Amino acid sequence: MTWQSLSKQAEQLSWREIAPQGYHQRLALIWQLVRSLLEGTMAAYADARTKAQAETGLPIALFPAELPFTWEQAMTQDLTSEAV
After folding, report:
1. Is the pTM of this model over 0.90?
2. Which of 25, 32, 56, 57 lies most in the core, judged by the most C-beta atoms within 10 Å?
3. How far apart are CA 17 and CA 40, in angstroms?
């Protein structure tokens, strides 16, 4: 499944519609979406790290190998041009 297809399915979910017999399937879909989002974030960071090294000419070791912030920090960070 792609992120786009999972996203479309997740948009159609409503907690009020979840019946006891169907909640496992819906929760599995949500967790699949979360995993895909996290995997995509990690892949994008790895690509950005490599690109930053290539553009700056600095040693790759100067760029953190892992995300230097938590998921919560990334989701709440103000990324407007004034804040950066």
Report:
1. no
2. 32
3. 29
